[in-house]
């Protein structure tokens, strides 16, 4: 979102129905607009619904850290119980694999959980105490019943009046111009 506003600003168009917002998005994309974004309670375009098609980087990082945590947990137990300070108590083996399963699982879950938590904070750029887009009146309904299409103005390369007229013709309830410095 920050990238769309960073040039000359952006036009925020509010739609009351998802069909109109979806049609507006596809029409604008077909007319050559490349700096488009949408805010809605659910994905309104097929490219948003499909996603990237591969494993998300956060999922890969969580899996890798969970695997690393499990290996580290097992190696710590092996080092402490079988190599560094083996105890012969009642004829039990020092390297007891079954006894190491639960702590290994707990270490894997701990590492994966911490990576998921920290990775999500980084991916969402949180904690963000203030977002300029939340200053738009009525934007808080985007998670409930409103649909917004954002047209980035690309450093003034697009005609604002023409874009505003096209959005009106596509059924926008209202159109707001958000400057880059806000």
Encode the helix/strand succession as letters. HEHEHHHEHE
- Shape designation: rod-shaped
Please compute the radius of gyration using only Cα atoms: 26 Å
Q: What is the helix tally? A: 6
Number of structurally distinct domains: 2
Give the helix/strand class: alpha+beta
Q: In percent, how helical is the residue content?
A: 40-55%
Number of strands: 4
CATH topology of the largest domain: Alpha-Beta Plaits
- Neighbour order of strands in the largest sheet: 2-3-1-4
Given this structure, which CATH class of the largest domain is correct? Alpha Beta
Largest sheet: 4 strands, antiparallel
Known CATH architecture of the largest domain: 2-Layer Sandwich
Point out poorly predicted stretches: none
- Beta content: 5-15%
Mean pLDDT: 84
Give the N-terminus to C-terminus distance in angstroms: 13 Å
Task: Explain what the structure shows.
This protein folds into 2 domains: 1-40 and 148-182, 2-Layer Sandwich (Alpha-Beta Plaits), CATH 3.30.70; 57-123, no CATH class. The radius of gyration is 26 Å and the shape is rod-shaped. With 182 residues, it is of the alpha+beta class. It has helices spanning 2-5, 18-30, 46-50, 57-84, 97-123, 160-169; strands at 10-15, 36-39, 147-152, 174-178. It is built from 6 helices and 4 strands, in the order αβαβαααβαβ. Strands 2-3-1-4 form a 4-stranded antiparallel sheet. The chain starts with a helix and ends with a strand.
């Amino acid at each position: 979102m920050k990238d769309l506003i960073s040039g000359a600003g952006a036009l925020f168009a509010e739609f009351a129905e998802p069909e109109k917002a979806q049609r507006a998005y596809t029409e604008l994309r077909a007319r050559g607009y490349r700096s488009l974004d949408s805010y809605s309670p659910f994905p309104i375009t097929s490219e948003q619904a499909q996603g990237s098609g591969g494993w998300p980087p956060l999922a890969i990082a969580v899996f890798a850290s969970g695997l690393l945590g499990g290996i580290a947990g097992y190696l710590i137990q092996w080092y402490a119980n079988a190599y560094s300070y083996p105890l012969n108590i009642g004829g039990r083996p020092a390297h007891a694999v079954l006894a190491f399963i639960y702590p290994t699982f707990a270490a894997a879950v701990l590492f994966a959980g911490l990576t998921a938590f920290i990775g999500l904070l980084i991916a969402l750029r949180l904690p963000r105490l203030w977002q300029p887009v939340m200053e738009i009146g009525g934007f808080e309904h985007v998670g409930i019943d409103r649909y917004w299409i954002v047209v980035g103005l690309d450093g003034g390369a697009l005609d604002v009046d023409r874009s505003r007229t096209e959005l009106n013709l596509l059924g926008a309830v209202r159109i707001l111009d958000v400057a880059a410095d806000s």
